Amino acid sequence: MSTFINISEATTIAVHSLALIANSKQIINANKIARITKFSQNHLSKVLQILVKHNYLSSLRGPTGGFTLIRQPNEISLYEIFKLIEGELQSFQCTITCQDCYFDTCLFGNYPHQFTENFQQYLMEKTLGDFKLKKVL
Asked: Going along the chain, which residue ranges are E strands?
């Protein structure tokens, strides 16, 4: 099935893990994040390494180790996380340019482009601080 916007598993892992860590009162390790989210331990670890490398998380090794946010949750937008993993959000591009199209109006009604803009605006406005857990960790 095709989608207008493809959100990779890595981006999903990054956003959910960061939001989980942001909501944790204490240091949280990768095993606990994997148990809660049901993400693959291997893929989760790779994404967490990226987040550490790009200064979103600090990590502490050892049996009492885990991850904490370096910045405040309300300072980290979903868009910057999305961009870190996916790159810039690209708008829909029809394979026929408007000047070469033989119809007087766009058959897609410019909706894919509007959807992309709306989604980007949402990601830019939302921060990790906007999301709270349903239950305490």
From this structure: 57-60, 66-69
